[in-house]
């Protein structure tokens, strides 16, 4: 698991690479890359509560990224 912060308090970029390449493990969008999940699905999770653990943190992070129109930052990080 990647550290969220480095020694100087900056976000570890490996977290974004992992977020761009992790697949949804269950539900309607099982197998989809998290970064490709539709925004209404993330809004639903935000309202109902994100799952516990790492996946919940990833979905909450992705919600904030999409809410602020920053999903374009993840597209170049997707591994082919």
SS elements, strand count? 0
- Our count of helices gives 3
Derived from helix and strand composition plus strand pairing, the structural class reads mainly alpha
Overall average pLDDT? 89
Helix content: 40-55%
Shape: globular
Give the distance, in angstroms, between the N- and C-terminal Cα atoms. 22 Å
Could you give a short account of the major beta sheet?
none
* Low-pLDDT residue spans: none
Strand content: under 5%
Rg, nearest Å:
12 Å
**What is the H/E order?**
HHH
State the oligomer: single chain
Pfam family, one: QSregVF_b
Organism: Sphingobacterium psychroaquaticum
InterPro entries: QSregVF_b
Protein name: DUF3820 family protein
Describe the overall structure.
It holds the Pfam family QSregVF_b. It comes from Sphingobacterium psychroaquaticum. This is DUF3820 family protein. InterPro entries: QSregVF_b. The protein is mostly helical and 80 residues long. The chain has a domain at 36-80. Helix content is 42%, strand content 0%. It has helices spanning 13-21, 39-48, 53-67. α2 (39-48) packs across α3 (53-67). The longest helix has 15 residues, at 53-67. The model has no long low-confidence stretch (mean pLDDT 89).
């Amino acid at each position: 698991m990647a550290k969220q912060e480095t020694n100087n308090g900056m976000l570890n970029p490996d977290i974004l690479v992992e977020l761009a390449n992790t697949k949804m493990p269950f539900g309607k969008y099982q197998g989809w890359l998290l970064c490709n999940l539709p925004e209404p699905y993330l809004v639903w999770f935000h309202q109902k509560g994100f799952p516990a653990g790492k996946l919940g943190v990833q979905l909450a992070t992705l919600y904030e990224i999409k809410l602020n129109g920053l999903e374009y930052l993840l597209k170049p990080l997707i591994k082919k």
